[in-house]
Amino acid sequence: MMSSRPDPPRPAQAAGGPQAEHGWHQAALSTTQEIAHALDTVAGLMAGLGFPEKDVFGVRLALEEALVNSVKHGHRNDPTKRVSLRYKVVQEYALVEVEDEGPGFDPRQVPDPTDPDNLERPGGRGLLLMRAYTSWLRHNDRGNCVTLRKYPSAPPAGA
Amino acid sequence: MATELFAVERLPDTLVVTPLADLGEFAFQGGESEAGQVYGLLNDPSVKHLVMDFGRTTYFGSSAVEFFVRLWTRLRSRNGRMAFCNLSPQEEEILKLTNLDSLWPICGSREEALRRVGAA
Question: Which of A117, B3, B47, B54 is 20 to 30 A from A51 (CA-CA)?
């Protein structure tokens, strides 16, 4: 379900990182180590702000799915291409954007993998899990950039 | 047989596969050849059933789920069965979200899983 709450202003596009602007951080990722570090960083920020453990797990899983999708499908494992990660984690939400250099895809064309007719077919489960573990997600028109938002499922610890 | 990602035990007509590390997307991308080795064990026609024992892990991602589906379709073609056991709450939730718990029994113990597949 889409939220009526507006997005915070995005950071200016810039190479390299991570950089912080209005609470946004961004990084250009290409190696497995860089991606693993980014996952740990986002999860650590959420945990530090008191997000429930299941929310931290869910965002980490959804972000891992998005990043690997970008490398594997968007870049076809081309190590010269970089994935742009932008994220903002505050007590009210975690907002993450993953953009690749690939041609993009149309998520509406991905079959529902939970349909009994599709259970034994490959594909679509990464997107399903990303949707299941976030409050909402959306793709840009080209389909090479996905934005994920997660609201805390319970008030932050100590709030 | 054992690799960094999987331990495999052979019973007369059943394989018991134990993932040794979380099969998140990154881990699985790095371990696709090991997954291929496990899949290759199904070339032996005397292997009819498979039990996946998740006692050592906490979660898996979509690529690992696709791998389980591939194993299942191969087994099903020879009227074999597959069961899962010792799942963490997160792993059980992922199987339910993907509706794959409708294909495979989820069991509390390895013994129960072996009974469910009818291991010899």
Answer: B54
Digits of tens for pLDDT over chain B (120 positions)? 777 899 999 999 999 999 999 999 988 888 889 999 999 999 999 999 999 999 999 999 999 999 999 999 999 999 999 999 999 999 999 999 999 999 999 999 999 999 999 986
Touching check for A116 and chain B: CB below 8 Å? yes
All residues at 6 or more sequence positions from B21 whose CB lies less than 8 Å from its CB, including other chains: B4, B5, B27, B56, B57
Distance (Å, whole) CA B79 – CA B92: 25
d(CA A26, CA A128): 25
- Specify the residue for token string 């932050």: A156
Q: Nearest-5° angle of CA A53, CA A19, CA A2? A: 50
Residue of A26, A89, A39, A27 lying closest to A66 (CA atoms):
A39
| Contact residues, B window 80-119, toward A, CB-based 8 Å cutoff | 90, 94, 97-100, 102-103
- CA dist A145 and B62 (Å) reads 19
Nearest-angstrom CA–CA distance, A100 and A109: 19
Specify the amino acid at residue B104. Answer: W
Distance from CA of A131 to the nearest CA of B (A): 10
Backbone torsion region of residue B46, taken as left when φ is above 0, otherwise alpha when ψ lies between -120 and 50, otherwise beta: alpha
Q: What is the ipTM score, two decimals? A: 0.92
- Contacting residues of B for A64, CB less than 8 Å apart: 24-26, 61
Residue A108's pLDDT band, with cuts at 50, 70 and 90, is: very high
- Which tokens hold the place of A103? 């041609």
